[in-house]
Design a protein that fits this description.
Blueprint (H helix, E strand, L loop, with lengths): L4 H16 L14 H29 L5 H24 L3 H7 L1 H8 L12 H10 L4 H28 L10 H12 L12 H100 L5
Helix pairs in contact: 2-3, 2-6, 2-7, 3-5, 6-7, 7-8, 7-9
Length: about 300
């Protein structure tokens, strides 16, 4: 590297900064609101609106107030909130055509006035939020969701069918207790047939409850099957672990016995070698004594 290269680099760097530097009068780019952000901001407010709608709608159906101006006003305001949420969500979606066809049910609950009881399905947002914030395991969250969904479907279905059936001339559901019983047997797909809706709106509610009940039964069946499979796998794993531990213990005992046998044989060989060595030492000492005696006799002078 020669001495001119640092100078070239120092001359190039200001040009790079000049190219990438923003213009002083350039317009600022604002972050576009996304559908996920909108859902996050409106999740709890829309859930609260659904709860208020449930309370007001229940009061209007069960209490039968003489004047419904206040209750109708509140429900109309909530309807405007739902309609606004639908329109904004459609505008913010990346693929509006796909989002439109995917949320036809939401469109029906906003456009069709006779489906206003189905706006109560917004209450399922509560279960979704609670599931996300819960620290329970997946099976526990599913159990909470199923129990909450069944309870809500029975109450909402009973309320909706009682609303559309109470003034029908050929009605079979005379009070809210009959409506709750009918909703319960419909959701559980038992269907005794002692009560049945006679209006087309009531039959539409019945169809929705039947479909919801079948779906929930499928979820419960899958959850129970998953639990059984998990218990079987745990049992098999415990049995395998127990068998493996017994086999390892048996192999360790055999290795210990073989090691003890080898040690005993080695000690016996060492004792035998020690005995042979002692015998050899004794023989050597005896031979040394004989040799020294013979040398002494040989070196003794003759006195004759």
């Amino acid at each position: 590297m020669n001495g001119t290269e640092p100078t070239k680099v120092s001359n190039i760097m200001p040009k790079i900064h000049e190219i990438h530097a923003p213009e002083p009068n350039a317009p600022k780019h604002h972050t576009r609101l996304t559908l996920d952000q909108w859902r996050k901001w409106t999740e709890w407010p829309m859930t609260g609106a659904a709860v208020v709608f449930l309370v007001v709608y229940s009061y209007q159906v069960l209490a039968r107030p003489a004047s419904t101006i206040v209750t109708e006003t509140i429900m109309n305001v909530i309807w405007v909130m739902f309609a606004t949420d639908y329109i904004v969500s459609l505008i913010l979606s990346d693929n509006r055509q796909f989002w439109f066809f995917r949320h036809l049910f939401d469109l029906a609950t906003v456009v069709l006035p006779m489906l206003r009881p189905l706006r109560l399905l917004r209450l399922f947002m509560v279960l979704k939020v609670l599931n996300r914030t819960s620290g329970l395991a997946l099976r526990g969250r599913i159990a909470i969701y199923v129990v909450g969904a069944v309870t809500m479907m029975i109450y909402v279905g009973a309320l909706a069918v009682y609303d559309v059936e109470q003034y029908a001339p050929t009605r079979q559901i005379d009070d809210f207790g009959d409506a709750v019983w009918w909703a319960f047997v419909t959701v559980t797909t038992v269907g005794y047939g002692d009560y049945a809706p006679t209006t087309w709106q009531g039959r539409l509610v019945a169809a929705a409850l039947m479909l919801g009940g079948i779906t929930l039964i499928g979820v419960v069946s899958a959850m129970v099957a998953s639990w059984i499979m998990e218990r079987v796998q745990v049992g098999d794993q415990k049995a395998f672990t127990k068998t493996f531990e017994a086999q390892m213990s048996r192999e360790l005992d055999e290795d210990a016995q073989e090691s003890a046998t080898r040690d005993a044989n080695l000690e016996a060989k060492i004792d035998a070698l020690s005995a042979q060595l002692a015998q050899l030492i004794a023989e050597r000492d005896t031979n040394a004594v004989h040799d020294s005696s013979a040398d002494a006799l040989t070196k003794r002078p003759d006195r004759t």
